[in-house]
Amino acid sequence: MINQVIELAERPDGQPSENNFRIKEIETPTTKDGEVLVQSKYISVDPYMRGRMRDEKSYMPPFEVNAPIQGGVVAEILESKSDNWREGDLVEGILSWQRIQTVRPELLRKVSPQVQPSSLALSTLGMTGLTAYFGLMDIGQPQKGETVVVSGAAGAVGGVVVQIAKIQGCRVVAIAGSDEKTTYLENELGADVALNYKTTTDMSEALKTACPEGVDVYFDNVGGEISDAVIPLINKFARIVLCGQIALYNETSIPHGPRVAPLLVKRSALMKGFIVTDYQNQIKEGVTALSGWYQQGLLKHQETVVEGFEKLPQAFLRLFTGEKLGKLVVQVN
Ligand SMILES: NC(=O)c1ccc[n+]([C@@H]2O[C@H](COP(=O)([O-])OP(=O)(O)OC[C@H]3O[C@@H](n4cnc5c(N)ncnc54)[C@H](OP(=O)(O)O)[C@@H]3O)[C@@H](O)[C@H]2O)c1
After folding, report:
1. Tens digit of pLDDT for each residue in 232-250?
2. Which GO molecular function, any one, fits this protein according to its record (predicted)?
3. Packed helices 127-134 and 156-167: angle between N→C axes, nearest 10 degrees
4. Atom number, ligand 1, closest to the C-alpha of residue 135
């Protein structure tokens, strides 16, 4: 069997490129007692992985140079030398960017055959859906009739946030980077207004018009100048959910923005960051809520599927150009 791995060849300086990755052929490992041999089916590319390319302490250790990139993978068990895990089972976990690998099953979760397509376990019913659910429901605490602004709204997390906020009865203002995305957000996901930040000349004015009663919840996936335009519009007791800051991930030094602390004081507002794994013990609650909405047709799933293991680096780079809709996954064939 052909086996291949993708490694980090060198750490990016600024915008990452394909040169930062190396694909190579390797031997397929032998399964030891207690292990399973798995074949990757879908591999997730996620913005947080950019942080792991830096040699910097964070909530996950940095990738090693000349070692495999790791991320969310849905895989099929080819061989099991562990009780309770059977050949043919689909599993999900943080694995290497590798076609076939051995793994200790404690690091895996089973993917129910009812999860169709199984890539949903990486997106709407998996990590990105749970990020949207816990960030919005626990920190954002959206109340019926409130205004929720979502940046990065046509992405994996943002698209789910928009829909959950609508389920909660909120007015939703969505921000994304193309007309195709804003049309999708208004026509398919039910956003009340969607703004294209790349073509809107004055975001502050556009947001004022879109949020006539101010902003109660800001779910921030992006940061930078988009947040600079949203935050001055917050209402008393507003909640700012800091989910991600992708606009800054490729910066070599963090640019200074407006100081928001005085406004947070004046508005008695909350600004809180989180990592989805903070909610590790509540995963069942999140999956139950998301699956329920999905089955009722209240939560739509949107994926951009790139075919081919060797396309992983290119797919990863598309997160920073925005050339995709919804969750970006690579199907390994
Ligand atoms: N806290 C957590 O536990 C957690 C978990 C998962 C994800 N996150 C964060 O949540 C955010 C969204 O993640 P995701 O998986 O849903 O990714 P995604 O939104 O599916 O993909 C990234 C999107 O970000 C937008 N973008 C890229 N560069 C930008 C820039 N300079 N300015 C504005 N927008 C830019 C692009 O869309 P446009 O076309 O709209 O520009 C792109 O499609 C990321 O910041 C990620 O790090 C956090």
Report:
1. 999 999 999 999 999 999 9
2. oxidoreductase activity, acting on the CH-CH group of donors, NAD or NADP as acceptor
3. 40
4. 1
